[in-house]
Amino acid sequence: MRIFIFHLLTPILGLSLLLGGAKNLIAAGEVEVLHWWTSGGEATALRVIKDNLQKKGVSWVDMPIAGGAGVNAMTVLRARVSSGKPPTAVQLLGFDITSWAEEDVLADLNDLAKQENWNKVIPQPLQDFAIYKGKWVSVPINVHSTNWVWANKAIFDKLNLAVPTNWNEFKLAVEKIKKAGIIPIAHGGQPWQDATIFDSLVMVAGGADFYKKAFLDLDAKALGSKTMEKAFSYLRFIRANLDPNFSGRDWNLASSMVIEGKAAMQIMGDWAKGEFVKADQVAGKDFICFRFPGTQGNVTFNADQFAMFKLGKSQKVNQDKLALVIADKDTQARFNQIKGSVPARIDISDAGFDACGKKGIKDLRESAANGTMMGSMAHGYAAPPAVKNAVFDVVTKFFNDEKVTPAKAAKMLAVAVAIAQ
Amino acid sequence: MKKRIQNILPLLVLSPTMVIILVFVYAFIVWTAILSFTNSTILPRYSFVGWTQYIKLWSIPNWYTAIKNLFIFTPLYISISVVIGLSLAIFLDQKIRIEGVIRPIYLYPMALSFIVSGTAWKWFLNPGTGLENAMHNFGWESFTFDWIINSDKAIYTVVIAAVWQSSGFVMAIFLSGLRGVNDEVVKSAKIDGAGFFNVYRYVIIPQLKPAFASAVIILLHLAIKSYDLVIALTNAGPGNSTEMPATFMYSYTFARSQMAIGSASAVVMLLTIASIFVPYIYSEVKNSA
Amino acid sequence: MSSNKFWRSLIYITLLVFAAFYLLPIYVMLTTSFKSVDEIRTGHILSWPNVFTTDAWGKAWFDACIGISCEGINKYFWNSVKMVIPAVLLSTLPGAFNGYVLTKWRFPGHNIVFGLLLFSCFIPFQIVLIPTATVLGKLGIADSTLGLILVHMAYGLGFTTLFFRNFYQAFPDELVRAARIDGAGFFTIFWRIMLPSSGPIIAISVIWQFTNIWNDFLFGASFTSGANSPITVALNNLANSSTGAKEYNVDMAAAIYAALPTLVAYVFAGKYFIKGLLAGSVKG
């Protein structure tokens, strides 16, 4: 009788092994790259790296995890690292790089860095994250900044609007646009998008020093201050000038609203430009870009970096090739022209860039020199993830709940940040 | 010899399952419980910090929102599903000619994941693209239905979608219960002059106790696990207003790199569930003894 | 008599109104999938397509973009098929044996074993994610279909055992006893006596497991990635990848592809499902 059961079980087990298959060991000339670049402009930019890598004989195994500005991707990464099988390279931001480096799972890229002189060509604020305890653990591909406004030029021309340079001018412009029956601000109601706007508002309310004190030093007094209340009241003004369907909308769909002329402006990092470019829009002609009114001279940055995970010698060769391609001048120039960001290297000519790209490069160099290049809270370059998310909680709660007053929000912010530390 | 094999055979057959369950369920629960007493952040770490994470957990406003939502969602979801399910089952039991067509229509939502129907739901509930927009198109200009973007009401849209998914299934449970009701008793009640409502109220529905029990157990279990639903519909927004314990745990463990707090919340969830289900399981087990 | 007629029409109307409520999402999905992107933008959610086009269906299956690979969802669909068949079989068969042992071959402590199994049905899966990921890695089957099969089997055993155990409990002990006196062994009784009468409960168990495993998102999203993802994860990625204007018609067509197997199972096997419920499978 027992033989009988084996007759039945063997085919099932066999079937499952056959169908499931023990599989997916990365082949010799391949790198597996985890990222969350799934929108049109992003994916096109990514092809630049992929193609340049292919030329070096290494093929790119794509591992895109869409959604949540990288939240889902980080979930998968954790499972993969816990299981001892991390991807070859991973797109990481700011304090996430530090967190992974602390777990001692990132590969050492010092030899390459020395050979390629990364110390000289990468701005110091980026090195603070790319280097952990004296070791290069990641390669930055670009620098984004979050304090940008993207505007539909036709609407601005039609309403005879000048580029606003401070909060009051911005307010007047918004009201004028609203009167004309156009949605003033295109926005997607997701916590990280709310927080992206808030980066600029904190800067406008209290200037660069206040931003540094509140968001980089996490000073409890600054977080709960009157100035912070002001930033929140600005946010309420923004909230009052959206269309009713903003909830849950993806950022690139908000960009489309500006492209199509349904809305006048979007307050978003410069990855938004990728969507404009992808829709055949020309900077200065179809759309205009300006620093969030009142923040010219400051840059709240967010840089995409690729961290290499420790995978042993056989993979190190490919990782080095990938790192070289990412740090390559040609790759960085072409990648960033498409993506909307500016190169992480400061020794790349701005020749091939459009008006917004040129401005971005200039602003970055200036702010890096003046010490006003500061990490974006919304994108994990100002504080560790726990704090960042605590800020998200308060900002998005305030944004969606009229009952929370600016004064209460500032108090909540100070408490939430204290708990998260 | 043969006899002895026959005696241990049942245990042998059962043992692989037991090993798997002991490891994958019970050992892993202990593992997570251990993590909740550590200071793990991005990956498990084993330096112990006592009850710190639990104290932190109960100081996070989001956690209270999650608990509050669970207490709003669960009773509404279960009671509405049971009322709709039972009513539809009774109606369908009136020798309805189109029962064969209606039944699969009621039942199919249970076959769909919210990852599948979520986009349609999100679209439908959004005032700019969905029902409100359609009503305006039909000429009913004053119609508003914007709960999903309102942080006080968004949780009710989650209830609507959840009821849509499982009330048909509850109907099926009650329908099978109704088909098992003793006809003789019903007939004699009718002969005694009891009307339609009284027959149901006093004779039939009391016989559906097992159906009620299984419906409630299944719904409770779905309610506490509700994760895909919230993620697909509101992603816990707007303004974290639809956070639930399951999404809270996931977000703290994975998005926020506060694994220890996430583990602590998972332990609290587990204890809550245990306090409800252990008595049920005890009664199940006693029945069989 | 006329009052009776009135009540009956009221019942019919109620039943049809609810049918419309249940059909609404699938109606929206279907009509949208046959519209063009332009028509979606100009029309509204409930409108009937002016021009039927099946473009979205072809695109969703063969060349919709997920990340930078534009190969449609077909390969993820097959991933799910490869996962669900073995996982359903491997959880149902042991469940049947367990139910048989727990009702007809009781041993001291059998109720503790059953209690432990039953409780495993109700745990929130979040509590096992991190340990599971670690163990799958140690076994060398992280990020593979095989790993998912194991996980689904492990967390499905509780349910299948519950189903079969409740079903077999109502099965007359006398028949088993008589067979044993005739000299039939453990397996003979199972194959010749128990299994042939288990049709309805097998149907329940298979449908239940099939739906749960096919629809799973949490495990799929946590333990697989990229090319190994099941359809639900790919679908979520697709719906979140948008190039400028969102192609709702492609999203909807892809969603219907993903729903098709479970829909078919429910519509065609639903009858057995009800019969199985009648057999007291999920009783309280």
Helix count of chain A?
Answer: 19
Query: Which term fits the overall shape of chain A?
Result: globular
Architecture (CATH level 2) name of the largest domain in chain A:
3-Layer(aba) Sandwich
Strand content of chain A: 5-15%
Give the SSE map.
The complex is a heterotrimer of chains A (421), B (289) and C (284).
Chain A: H1 2-20, E1 30-35, H2 40-55, E2 59-64, H3 71-82, E3 89-92, H4 94-102, H5 110-116, H6 118-121, H7 124-130, E4 131-132, E5 135-136, E6 138-140, E7 142-145, E8 148-152, H8 153-158, H9 167-179, E9 183-186, H10 191-216, H11 220-223, H12 226-239, H13 251-259, E10 263-267, H14 272-278, E11 287-291, E12 299-302, E13 305-308, H15 313-327, H16 329-339, E14 342-343, H17 355-370, E15 373-375, H18 385-400, H19 406-420
Parallel strand pairs in A: 1-2, 1-3, 9-10, 12-15
Antiparallel strand pairs in A: 3-13, 4-5, 6-13, 7-12, 7-14, 8-10, 8-11
Helix pairs in contact in A: 2-16, 10-12, 10-18, 12-18, 12-19, 13-14, 18-19
Chain B: H1 2-35, H2 52-57, H3 61-92, H4 99-107, H5 114-125, H6 131-137, H7 154-179, H8 183-191, H9 196-204, H10 209-225, H11 228-233, H12 245-255, H13 259-288
Helix pairs in contact in B: 1-13, 3-7, 3-10, 3-12, 4-7, 7-10, 8-9, 12-13
Chain C: H1 2-33, H2 37-42, H3 55-63, H4 74-104, H5 110-120, H6 129-138, H7 145-169, H8 173-181, H9 186-194, H10 199-215, H11 218-223, H12 231-240, H13 248-278
Structural overview:
The complex is a heterotrimer of chains A (421), B (289) and C (284). Chain A has helices spanning 2-20, 40-55, 71-82, 94-102, 110-116, 118-121, 124-130, 153-158, 167-179, 191-216, 220-223, 226-239, 251-259, 272-278, 313-327, 329-339, 355-370, 385-400, 406-420, and strands at 30-35, 59-64, 89-92, 131-132, 135-136, 138-140, 142-145, 148-152, 183-186, 263-267, 287-291, 299-302, 305-308, 342-343, 373-375. Chain A has 421 residues and is of the alpha/beta class. Chain A folds into two domains: 30-144 and 302-370, Periplasmic binding protein-like II (D-Maltodextrin-Binding Protein, domain 2, 3-Layer(aba) Sandwich); 145-301 and 373-420, Periplasmic binding protein-like II (D-Maltodextrin-Binding Protein, domain 2, 3-Layer(aba) Sandwich), CATH 3.40.190. Chain A has a five-stranded mixed β-sheet with strand order 2-1-3-13-6, sandwiched between helices. In chain A, a hairpin with a 2-residue loop joins strand 4 and strand 5. The longest helix of chain A is centred in the middle third of the chain and has 26 residues, at 191-216. The model of chain A is unreliable at 1-25 (pLDDT under 50). Chain B folds into two domains: 22-59 and 258-289, no CATH class; 68-245, MetI-like fold, CATH 1.10.3720.10. Helices cover 72% and strands 0% of the residues of chain B. Chain B has helices at residues 2-35, 52-57, 61-92, 99-107, 114-125, 131-137, 154-179, 183-191, 196-204, 209-225, 228-233, 245-255, 259-288. In chain B, helix 3 runs parallel beside helix 7, helix 3 packs across helix 12 (245-255) and helix 8 crosses helix 9 (196-204). Chain B starts with a helix and ends with a helix. The model of chain B has no long low-confidence stretch (mean pLDDT 89). Chain C has two domains: 2-53, no CATH class; 74-278, MetI-like (MetI-like fold, Orthogonal Bundle), CATH 1.10.3720. In chain C, helix 4 crosses helix 10 (199-215), helix 7 (145-169) runs antiparallel to helix 10 (199-215) and helix 12 packs antiparallel against helix 13. Chain C is flat. Chain C has helices at residues 2-33, 37-42, 55-63, 74-104, 110-120, 129-138, 145-169, 173-181, 186-194, 199-215, 218-223, 231-240, 248-278. Chain C starts with a helix and ends in a 6-residue tail after the last helix. The longest helix of chain C is centred in the N-terminal third of the chain and has 32 residues, at 2-33. By secondary structure, chain C is mainly alpha-helical. Chains in contact: A-B, A-C, B-C. Chains B and C meet through helix 1, helix 3, helix 4, helix 5 and helix 6 of B and helix 1, helix 4, helix 5, helix 6 and helix 7 of C.
